[in-house]
Amino acid sequence: MLDITTTRHNPLVDPVLSVWSWEIPVYLFLGGMIAGMMVLGGLNMLRILKGERPEGFYSVQTPVLGFVMLNLGMGALFLDLAHKLYVYRVYMAFEPTSPMSWGSWVLILVFPVLILSALIRLPEAWPWLGDRIPALRGWSEAILARPGLVKALAWLNVLLGIGLGIYTGILLSTMVARPLWNSAILGPLFLVSGLSAAAAMVHLVSSLVPGHPAPRSFLGGAFAMLVQPLGANPPEAKTSVSLVKADLAFLAAELVLIGLLFIGLASSSASHVAAIDLLTSGRFAAVFWWVVIVAGILVPIVLQWLELGHRIPHTVVPALLVLAGGFALRWVMVGAGQASHMVAAVGM
Amino acid sequence: MPRFGMVIDTLKCVGCMDCVVACQTENDVPLGYCRDWIVTETRGEFPDLSLEIRSERCNHCDNPPCVTCCPTGASHVEDFGKTVQVTAEKCIGCKACLSACPYGARFVHPEGYADKCTFCLHRVKEGKDPACVSVCPTHCMVFGDLDDPNSEASRLLRSRKHHTLLPEAGTKPRVFYLT
């Protein structure tokens, strides 16, 4: 028997660490999704450069959506800070051992890349803005006239997207004090989950107003700009099919990585084995198994499989489930990870 | 340059909490928070029980995860004494260090920055012991330079059985408990 009592009573630390609330899962989810959009968008920019028709691809316009969501994510991150006035300090230093420092600088690079990528189609996607700022059309044409710049932008999207997607997992996995996070699987898991959420999000928004010309009004144009990644032309059938196929591959990879995470924990120290209990019983278990695994991965896999076989009609239901599952994964990992801690050896 | 550490004799500690009160008074620790605390650990089955009472605090680790994860350098290893300190004006309150510490030694000060035991560096620079050490009625705590083989702390570590907290974390704590 080992019985430990303590007089420590620090808020947010005792009895269970709970320093990160809803803001961090929201940021991790949005950041992962933006990362996935950048990777998918960058790869498609490369295909367009090879002469394929741009309207045939999803993700052409995701930089605009990504830019807006990045601001929302950064806003959530800012809300989480306890010493807000000193936030500028992040950019007064680069700490090579700190994944958070790496992530902060990656985010600074992501902004201009997203803005430049968004400029390619911004005047056409949001005519109201394009009419009022004629220079936008000039910039758009200037970028398109330089294939080298588009190619560089495409690769920057892919590389920064991978960096952004993977750093959030690495940030958590480097913490030896939290056995549930302390796995190298977490980086790739968050990256793949972000790619899956990105495919689902693009699928979802492209279903809202498929193939209609962008409205010329301010609000309607702004809305269409965000939710019409396919542009004014009707999407080709292969676009949505390729989205579903990509999402299937991402979901399958996510399932494998979660399996590897469990194997790693189960075959490690007593603290790591104890961390599994947080996902198999307790207050996070129901959300993890029912929302993350069943509703967020297994059901979308089955539905999308049936859609590809033309056995059921194409709907946005799998995309909605994938997004819910992607957020739930972050929420569970952040919450349960904080609750996981190193356990003292009973036989010491 | 010294490398400060603390040696605490668990056979002498009675858990009176004088160290806790002294720290709160000396460092103006906000009400409801603590930089050091008392842990009572009971092992075995009745009637064969053993009891260890410990005064715990930041371990000022040689390999501090709170320092490596800090994005601004606010958490740092001070040159003087190689202790782990926080510069409040650099801290953004991201709380990564709180998550990274296996000992739960840190907390968020009501003003927003990460806070913890400093080994009373302001007193040590004046040649005094940390407040907790100076008030201990059983003299169970010894503060000193671990790199000086003649310091009382080093001699105690050479002559007595001791352990650190969660050595498997690889943090190399510098608060030692004599058993």
Report helical residue fraction of chain A.
55-70%
* Measured distance between first and last alpha carbons of chain A: 11 Å
The end-to-end span of chain B amounts to 29 Å
Quickly name the level 1 CATH class of chain A.
Mainly Alpha
Unreliable sequence segments of chain A? none
Oligomer: heterodimer
Structure classification of chain B = alpha+beta
Number of domains of chain B: 1
Instruction: State the secondary-structure class of chain A.
Output: mainly alpha
- Please write the CATH class name of chain B: Alpha Beta
Q: Level of helix content of chain B? A: 10-25%
Topology (elements, then pairings):
The complex is a heterodimer of chains A (348) and B (179).
Chain A: E1 2-6, H1 23-49, H2 62-80, H3 99-119, H4 122-125, H5 127-132, H6 134-144, H7 147-173, H8 186-208, H9 218-227, H10 237-266, H11 270-280, H12 285-308, H13 317-339
Helix pairs in contact in A: 1-2, 1-7, 1-8, 1-13, 2-3, 3-7, 7-8, 8-10, 8-13, 10-11, 10-12, 11-12, 12-13
Chain B: E1 4-9, H1 18-26, E2 37-45, E3 48-56, H2 65-68, E4 75-77, E5 84-86, H3 96-100, E6 107-108, E7 114-115, H4 121-124, H5 131-135, E8 141-145, H6 152-159, E9 162-163, E10 175-178
Description:
Chain A has a single domain (23-339), classed as Formate dehydrogenase/DMSO reductase domain (Formate dehydrogenase/DMSO reductase fold, Up-down Bundle). Chain A has 13 helices and 1 strand; from the N terminus they run βααααααααααααα. Chain A has helices spanning 23-49, 62-80, 99-119, 122-125, 127-132, 134-144, 147-173, 186-208, 218-227, 237-266, 270-280, 285-308, 317-339; one strand at residues 2-6. In chain A, helix 1 (23-49) crosses helix 8 (186-208). Chain A is globular and about 75 Å long. The model of chain A has no long low-confidence stretch (mean pLDDT 87). Chain B is α+β, with helices and mostly antiparallel strands and 179 residues long. Helices cover 20% and strands 25% of the residues of chain B. Chain B has 6 helices and 10 strands, in the order βαββαββαββααβαββ. In chain B, strands 8-1-10-9 form a 4-stranded mixed β-sheet. In chain B, strands 2-3 form a two-stranded antiparallel sheet. The longest helix of chain B is centred in the first third of the chain and has 9 residues, at 18-26. At the A-B interface, strand 1 and helix 3 of A face strand 2, helix 3 and strand 6 of B.
